[in-house]
Each structure stands twice: as structure tokens, then as C-alpha cells.
Amino acid sequence: MSDINQLYNNIKKELEKPKPSGNNVLSYLLTVASENFDSVFYTPVANIFQLNPEFFMESFYPLFRKKLVKLFGDQKIKEMEKYILEKSCLHEGEEIIYECDGSIQELFPKSYKIEVLNGTIYVTASRIIAQGSLRTARMSYSGPLSITLGIAAGSPTTRTRRGRRRDIKPTDAKENLISTSIHQELPCYGYVFSIKKLFNLYHNKHLITYEIIHDSRLYKYKLSFSSSKIQNSTDKLFDILKSFGRKMFYKKSFRFKGPFKNGIKNLGLDYYKDLVKALGGKINDTSLKTLSYFITNRPKSKYLKFQEMGIEILTEQEFLDLIEG
Question: Strand 199-203 relative to strand 207-214: parallel, antiparallel, unpaired?
């Protein structure tokens, strides 16, 4: 017990430094892991994460995971990670509905992707938590996958001081994913991906894809599986995710009148129409009697007749806000 207490003290002192050393923390932990790769070892790991989640996920976790997989094998690491996740990171009432070995990618079409590889995917009622190796990679679509994903969005962009557009760096998106995962009510030992209000859900025996809209931006995700029972994994997970999908526009009809310039960048009218259909609605360009929504950026005063008929007129941004709800 005195050895464990000394370990805690050494780690705590290291974490109190302005720039903690991942190698020093790792060396302290390995002195325990060599003899007790069980809950005796899991507890100090969980404590490091709780004391300084930023240091843990940004600097320590990649080094730590790679080293431990090499020393003790992939399966033992996954057991430890699940133990810490369930003990420290799930909200009250939150439960793991499904888990499987696999990878998940956040896709930035025609640009790059962020992926969590060779780990475990956990699904709860509100999110996917992925544990594994995080990296960014260039996108290079070919063949039917580009059709499957319905590529329409451009790479995320921002503006320089002079007003010119520039691509957001992959490192920025990677840091944003880590930040989103740890800056929550309970920091998460893993990487968090939303499944709230998902749509365009698709699957085959090798993968599952889905989309969400958040802050007027389109996000695309792809899950792939390393399980020997790939078809079983995709079928089960697809059924679970399908229950979270939305048909919010069921029996609703839409008409669009451009031009559109706000909202999701580089998508255009065709994507908005596909979005309505994916959410259970219909496009109505013929009859006003059965029209539910009219989407336009033009002054609403030009369409008083529509309002008198009970048709709801929305701007492009109001349409996107309705979807994000």
C-alpha cells in the first residue's frame, strides 16, 4: 500500500508542473502495471484522467495506449478502458447500449478525415464514445463509397483578416474533437461523437454512415468494424441507430425559392431537398393547397397569399434552426 501511495504522490507532483511529462507519468504507472494489471492499476490511471483530463487526452493518452498495447495486448487495454469509462465518465442514468470493436471517422469531404482506429465503439442513448488511436488523414474517395456518402459539402473553411477563405487545418479539427470530449459535465475517457437527430443513415455489411447538422454545419460519420462477425455488428448497430433517426417532416411538404446564401456552406438547393426527404418530408412545387412550408430568403411580405393559406414561411436559417431544434 505504501508503494501505491508513493505512486500517487509522484504522479500528483508531476501533474502539478506547468508542463507535465508524459514519459515520467508513464514510467510511474509501469512500475505498478508490471505486477498488477487489474483494478489496482486502473485506479491510478483513472485518477490521472480526472486530475488533468486535458493533459491526459491531448498529450498522454496516445503515448500511454500505444505502450500498453505493446506490453500487455489489445484486449487487456480495452478491459481497462471500459472499466474507467463506466466508473468515471457516464452521466447519471446513462448506460452503454451496445459495444463492438471497430473504428469511426468524421469526414470532411474532398479534404481530410479524423478517425479513431483499432479500438472499441460504445453506444449510449445520446452519443458514441470511441476509444482507440486518433489520427487525421487525407480524403481520397473512389468507387461507390462516394455515392454512398452523398458527397456534397466542401471542406470546412474560415476567413483570414483580408477576407480570403482558407481551409481549417486538420490539427484544429482534431483539437476540437478532444476539447469537445473532455469539456463536458463529466470529461470523457475517449472521443465523443453525437448521434442526436441523425439522418441519412445507411449501412452494408462493412460499414455504417450517418449525418447530423450542428451550428448550421453538416457533419458526416462512417463506422467500420474489425469484428470477425462484421455483418452481425452492422445489423445490430444499425437497428439501434435507426431508433434515434428522425422523420420530423412526416406528412409535411416543402417548396424552396432561392437564392440561398446562408446555412450549410457549399451545399445548395439539391441538398436541402434531399434533406427534407431524408427526414420524411416531400417536395411540393405544384400545389399550394397541400404545402406546409415555403423556404425563401426573400421578404415574407411578398408572400401574403401563402400566409393567408396557413403556409409557414421560413428563411433558410430558420429552416436549419427547425432541423437542429
Answer: antiparallel
116 in Cβ contact with 108 (< 8 Å): no
259 preceded by cis ω (within 30°)? yes
In 3D, which of 86, 103, 104 has the Cα closest to residue 95? 86
Determine which helix (DSSP H) or strand (DSSP E) holds 314, and give its type and residue range: strand 312-314
Contact 71, 46 (CB under 8 A): no
User: Nine-digit cell at 237?
Assistant: 448497430
Instruction: Name the residue ranges covered by the structural domains of the chain.
Output: 2-88, 98-244, 253-324
Could you tell me how far CA 108 lies from the centroid of its own chain? 12
In this predicted structure, the answer to whether residue 163 has a pLDDT above a threshold of 60 is no
> Is 255 within 8 Å of 283 (Cβ atoms)?
yes
The C-alpha atoms of residue 52 and residue 75 are separated, in whole angstroms, by 26
Tell me the Ramachandran region of residue 283: left when phi exceeds 0, alpha when psi lies from -120 to 50, beta otherwise.
beta
In CATH, which of 3.40.50.410, 2.60.15.10, 3.40.50.360, 3.40.50.10190 is domain 253-324? 3.40.50.10190
**pLDDT digits over 164-196, tens only?**
334 456 677 788 889 889 888 889 999 999 888
Buried/exposed code over 23-38 (b: 16+ C-beta within 10 A; e: otherwise) = eebeebbeebbeeebe
